[in-house]
Amino acid sequence: MEKTMPNGGKFELMALPYAPEALEPVISAQTLSFHHGKHLAAYVNNLTAALPGSGLEGLPLEEVVLKAQGGMLNNAGQILNHNLYFSQFMAPKADNAPAGSLAEAIDRDFGSFEAFKEAFARAGATLFGSGWAWLSADGDGRLTITQEPNAANPIQRGLCPLMTMDVWEHAYYLDYQNRRPDHLAALWQIINWDVMAARYDRK
Ligand code: MN
Known about the structure:
By secondary structure, this protein is mainly α. The protein folds into two domains: 29-87, Helix Hairpins, CATH 1.10.287.990; 100-202, 3-Layer(bab) Sandwich (minor pseudopilin epsh fold), CATH 3.55.40. Helix content is 47%, strand content 10%. Strand 1 (131-137) and strand 2 form a beta hairpin. The longest helix is centred in the first third of the chain and has 22 residues, at 29-50. The mean pLDDT is 95. The structure holds manganese (II) ion. Manganese (II) ion binds next to helix 1. Manganese (II) ion is lined by residues 35, 39, 82, 166, 168, 170-171.
């Protein structure tokens, strides 16, 4: 799994790889701007403030997530989660179906792509409170869906995360209010399956 290294001892706010309006109408420019420019930026600022003297300076972000506790773990976990969510999971005009070995693994482990989507949407919709639904692979390439509360990431279970949906209210409330399942259903339109398949092949 790739590592996110600090730059000059600190982690920086990732640049969005698309314009704020590029994911409309699934995610509005307003939601994307607040989500990236306010929520993620706050996690980055909080971790930057907490790192000095923690003993975790200079470690890759993934190592910080595995070793930190309390507020530092929450902020590091949220940075890792959002970096994946913004830069790898979603893309404008994305392909809408997996291919290659990932498609074969989805059929093998969930029965069909449609059955996988149903199971994943259920995991996202039924996660109580704030958190993330994840698709991950284990060391043998077996796929699994997990519900992770708050800032948790599947690497804490020894899994390789492939894709995720953010079910914190800040991810959808401006656009969908309380209708979390409607937001999750719309997200399938902008999933970047090409990147997901590549992540699966090099897990
Ligand atoms: Mn979020």
